[in-house]
Amino acid sequence: MSIIKSFDKLKEELVKKSVRKKVAVVWAADDSTQQAVAQTLSDGFVEAVFVGYVRELQELPLLRPHLDHITFIDAATPDEAAEIAVSLVREGKADVLMKGLINTDNLLRAVLNKETGILTRGNVLTHISVAQLPAYDKLLLFSDAAVIPYPTHEQRIKQVEYAAAMVRSLGIDEPRISLIHCSEKVNEKHFPHTAGYKEIAAMGQAGSFGRCIVDGPLDVKVSCCRESMVTKGFSSPIDGQADVLIFPDIEAGNTFYKTITLFAGAQTAGVLQGPNAPVVLPSRSDSTMSKYNSLAVAVMSLTH
Fold first, then answer.
1. Angle between the N-to-C axes of helices 7-17 and 31-43, in degrees from 0 to 180, rounded to the nearest 10
2. Distance, CA of 182 to CA of 87 (rounded, Å)
3. For the whole model, what pTM was predicted?
4. Other C-beta atoms lying within 10 Å of the C-beta of residue 263
5. Nearest alpha-carbon partner for 267 in 139, 99, 100
């Protein structure tokens, strides 16, 4: 498989593979979720299992051409739909979980339930975003803009592990992962998290995450612009070509996400990693295209 550098190329590769993955969609009562799933059905890489809001969905004209690839499961409420959808994933009857019109907290409650959820002990629930930026020549992944407020050292190690695997699903054999800070200096007094960056970089060099390059602390510009790195007289094996940015906390990650989408025209996708299956957890403001891209990323992560 060639390296996937855009969402169009991602779609092309999925269509070429001609493999459908089952997506359990929780309470798809909103137009953008319905349209995104309908497009993935049309493109041929999804089997949809709609859980809840069944009567309305069965009458939806845009789904009628795809009924051979759709299953409907009734549920009285969004919370019941979440429980059923999570059980489908846990039992191996669905490959991906997708949020429709349900509060994020309610869906995560089902995902994280210690008895009936889908987060295996030892794993970490974290959010990985994928961005296509006009000024960057490949897809850029970053974490965490949505779930973990202040990652611990152990959680950050898991973020690197999950991100490396996701980058490989895009055809990049040796991911370049940058551990982000406002400068290239460790500052244990004011930024204690930077003290762990060197250990994580050493783990990368030792092969703990498979074949990859990990370095930090680095700022975003040095991570993604070789000219900036050279101008600053700085050297890094990332070489200004980062595939992944691991942000220090949710404030930095979320601000970056909002900035690139508002001011830079970035197309985005987002997937929760850590559970037994990828979870597509869009926000209410996400577009149909963002939800479609998220489903595509989730499916590709399972077909590599």
1. 50
2. 42
3. 0.95
4. 8
5. 139
Strand order in the sheet with 126-132: 70-73, 46-51, 21-26, 96-99, 279-280, 267-273, 126-132, 140-143, 244-246, 176-180, 213-218
Are 25 and 35 in contact, with CB atoms under 8 Å apart? no
Cα separation, 193 vs 82, in Å, equals 35
Chain position carrying tokens 């489908």:
88
Q: Tell me the pLDDT tens digit for each residue of 196-221.
A: 999 999 999 999 999 999 999 999 99
Q: Rounded to whole angstroms, how far apart are CA atoms 67 and 52?
A: 16
The token pair at 179 is: 């551990």
Specify the amino acid at residue 143: S
Tell the burial category of 202 from Cβ atoms under 10 Å away from its Cβ (0-12, 13-18, 19+): exposed
CB 119 within 8 A of CB 125: yes
In whole angstroms, give the CA distance from residue 108 to residue 86: 10
- The 10s digit of each residue's pLDDT in 60-101 is 999 999 999 999 999 999 999 999 999 999 999 999 999 999
Return the sign of the alpha-carbon dihedral for residues 181, 187, 192, 198.
Answer: positive
